[in-house]
Structure to design on (264 residues):
């Protein structure tokens, strides 16, 4: 917690790292924000709408800053929540919308329309977007219990998003949620996550399906039905967040050098 509180993005013009959560409906994007918010509030919170439904409960683009306690200052990151991905085209989050979010064009509380992608205001889109407004790290949120059930269409959608993110040089991480539901051993004791051969095979499966290194797949358990915080749960969530901040710094370092080269 202390490391996260004291984190300073490597580029002085960026006060808070912007982390974008992308994933299928019900994978746990909003729950991850609620879980991180709960840890810093020292109590279970439910600020972002989360739960299980056939279609996305999140219909707007939301940017969630997190405070260090009720009266505390804002922490050095913003979690950006999006509508869930759906298999069929014309449903769920559109890839063109993701492109607009990555480049900092979409405002907070913009309501997604799956049939019509976002069209930037011509006056606004003519001005260059600052590095502060862009996305600095992309997190794919994947439910550990549904990896083997992932359809080819959804896998292809994720692959085309990854190609877009790669082309912009943005750092990427996979958050593998619901590890306790995937493995009875882990449900009994969250610390057994590190020795569970089943979780290890799931991490490898996510890695090969999404084409990301195993080291970029972070297993976590979000708070969903708990009434009190649990240390082991907090450790996994905070470790994942710390890694996101580190990856965002890698991107910012590169982006800053590219801007310097433009002016040289």
């Amino acid at each position: 917690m202390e490391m996260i509180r004291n984190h300073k993005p490597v580029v002085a013009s960026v006060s808070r790292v912007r982390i974008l959560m992308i994933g299928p409906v019900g994978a746990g994007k909003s729950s991850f924000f609620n879980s991180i918010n709960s840890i810093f509030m020292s109590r279970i919170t439910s600020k972002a709408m989360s739960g299980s439904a056939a279609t996305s409960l999140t219909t707007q683009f939301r940017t969630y800053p997190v405070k260090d306690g009720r009266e505390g200052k804002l922490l050095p990151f913003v979690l950006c929540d999006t509508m869930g991905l759906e298999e069929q085209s014309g449903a769920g989050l559109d890839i063109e919308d993701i492109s607009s979010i990555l480049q900092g064009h979409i405002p907070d509380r913009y309501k997604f329309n799956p049939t019509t992608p976002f069209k930037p205001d011509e006056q606004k889109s003519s001005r260059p977007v600052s590095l502060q407004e862009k996305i600095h790290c992309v997190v794919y949120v994947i439910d550990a219990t549904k990896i083997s059930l992932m359809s080819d269409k959804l896998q292809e959608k994720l692959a085309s998003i990854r190609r877009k993110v790669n082309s912009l040089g943005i750092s990427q991480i996979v958050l593998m949620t619901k590890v306790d539901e995937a493995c009875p051993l882990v449900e009994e004791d969250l610390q057994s996550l590190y020795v569970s051969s089943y979780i290890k095979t799931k991490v490898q499966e996510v890695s090969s399906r999404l084409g990301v290194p195993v080291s970029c797949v972070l297993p976590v358990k979000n708070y969903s039905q708990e009434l009190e915080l649990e240390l082991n749960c907090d450790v996994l969530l905070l470790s994942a967040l710390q890694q996101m901040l580190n990856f965002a710094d890698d991107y910012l370092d590169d982006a800053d050098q590219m801007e310097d080269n433009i002016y040289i």
User: Anything to note?
Assistant: The radius of gyration is 18 Å. Residues 231-263 form the longest helix (33 residues). The first strand starts at residue 17 and ends at 22. The chain has nine helices and seven strands.
